[in-house]
Amino acid sequence: MAGMTFASSRALGRVTIVELSEGQRRVIVDKVPDMANVAAGAMVFGQFLAERPFSIVLAASGIAAWLVLGAYTLFIARGRKA
Fold first, then answer.
1. Which residues pair with 9 in a beta bridge?
2. Residues with Cβ < 8 Å from 36, sequence gap 6 or more?
3. pLDDT tens for residues 31-69?
4. Structural domain boundaries, residue 57
5. Is residue 16 in some structural domain?
6. Within a domain: residue 1?
7. Which residues contact 13 (CB under 8 A, 6 or more apart)?
8. The total number of structural domains that make up the chain
9. Which residues are registered as beta bridge partners of 63?
């Protein structure tokens, strides 16, 4: 794999692995919250459809997934400041 570049250096010493266009960023900001809602809904409210006892660990995992995906969306939405 000689000659292939996987990351580029920037002026301030940052390394960027993936640079998103404005259109790609817009799609991610639109769709990731939907994924967060599905993840939380499946892990929290989906338990009521199962014939098992309610799991606090699974519910907490769903809430954590929602928070992580929400934070990722905010991070992507703010875009590049450089």
1. 15
2. 65, 66, 69, 70, 73
3. 999 999 999 999 988 899 988 899 999 999 999 999 999
4. 21-78
5. no
6. no
7. none
8. 1
9. none
Tokens of 81: 């400041």
The answer to whether position 58 is within a domain reads yes
Q: What b/e readout covers 7-25, taking b as 16+ CB neighbours within 10 angstroms?
A: eeeeeeeeeeeeeeeeeeb
What would the two tokens of residue 14 be? 């940052």
Query: Which pair of tokens denotes residue 64?
Result: 């954590």
Q: How confident is the model at residue 20 (pLDDT cuts 50, 70, 90)?
A: confident
Question: pLDDT exceeding 70 applies to what percent of the chain?
Answer: 76
Please state the separation of Cα 63 from the chain's center in Å.
13
d(C-alpha 7, C-alpha 17), whole Å? 5
